[in-house]
User: What shape does this take?
Amino acid sequence: MTGQAGAEATAEAAAGAVVAALRDAGLTVATAESLTGGLLCATLVDVPGASAVVRGGVVAYATELKASLLGVDPERLAATGPVDGLVAEQMARGARERTGADVAVATTGVAGPGPADGHPAGTVFVGLAADALPGGARHRALHLPGDRPQVRRATVAAALAELLALAAPR
Assistant: This one.
């Protein structure tokens, strides 16, 4: 498989592995999404049995919704804008708190086609929140190539990889 069909099959397999690992670990998950616009949560709930682990998701595409729905510090948003690692962490913390999930993952960044908020297309931050993490949260910065759909799909893949590493540590 190549192209979009291959990417979708890969995401489906990764989501299946994440759901199984979360289930085996006895963990639940929530998502907080900006640039992925719900694609991450949808990818997870496409997996049969996802209801055992997925608590829900919040799509906070507009910057002000990151503060009002997810509790991101408005001063942080004013200082850095939404494309920021600590914003991603705060989004994940907010989703976790609001849904009662054990683990939460957040996506924020610039999918393209052009730059936004002073960042080039492909600049992405994936945030995680969980008790198992030092300080309760962390983020990963990514610089992804491709057009808008490719950046969004690659972000979902990266978020799933982060969840899998957290749920099924080696």
